[in-house]
UniProtKB/TrEMBL annotation:
Signal found in the keyword field: yes
Protein name: Trehalose utilization
Lineage: Bacteria, Pseudomonadati, Acidobacteriota, Terriglobia, Terriglobales
ThuA-like domain boundaries: 66-299
Organism of derivation: Terriglobus roseus (strain DSM 18391 / NRRL B-41598 / KBS 63)
Any matching Pfam family: ThuA
Signal peptide feature range: 1-19
Amino acid sequence: MRTRAALLFLLLLTSLLEAQTTPTTNRQGTADLGMSYGIRIGPGMNSASVGDESYHNNAEPHRKRVLAWIDISNGYQHDSVSHAVATIERLGYETGAYDTFIRTDSHAITKGTVTGSDGQPLLYAKNLNDFDAIFFFGVREIDLAASQKKDLLAFVHDDGKGFVAAHAGATAFFSWPDFGEMLGGRFDEHPWGITDAPVLVEDNNFPGMTNLPPTFQHIDEYYQIKDFSRARAHVLLRLDVSKLDMTVPLVHHKEADFPLAWAKSYGKGRVYYSALGHDPSTWDDRAVQQMYFEALRWALHLTDAEITPRPLPAEAKPLR
């Protein structure tokens, strides 16, 4: 027994010595499983790398990063915001497509130093330079300094990054015209409240639309959009208003063009908006999850798509 125990001890000692002398290239400590060239290839971020300075100073390669920005300090707590952001984070985590950083404030909307309430730089804080796209579900007026507004527009327009906005994101920054120009349209009431209505797919070749039928029924709070032009955006979904009461008081448009989702360029960057997502349960719909997941992949330049603006399809019936 003593001979066997001694042999096992020698084998263990030899293994430990080999581990100490074997060179490593990714410096990920004990969390190396699923790593390839320092980048996690399975679900989730590498637990060691998140606490490693190399992850935060970009010394090591990393996956695409998404800033989930949900500042609602001057608006209201939309019921679906929490579940929506949790879903976006989970989709990136489980697929390994991107890492999500969730902020309920707007301190990260800058290319300068991110500071705390005491004016001191925050440890491991990231600014816009550290992200590849923004998922936005903020509402109403958000307090941004002039420099922050400039940096946000440059993040998309000049740096070629992505901006994906969901549902109530179209209600934000009414007092800031440049934001509306970047997004492509503005909220203009929801005349029918929450209703079951047919949705028309205008481009089933765009990522996230490929598995949808030409028309599908969906329950949501459908937005009416203003300040929108088909000359500047590629419509993906529109509401079939021929099945809705167009005499209700809040209907401001008298044409059949009620876009629900679109993709567009803004300078070098990519912008996507969808009005779907009012109820928390909507974010459990696999079709809706696929739409937003593929929208983010497109915004992150992980996929490509044709987004040439097109006119309203000829078969769309004019309203009487």
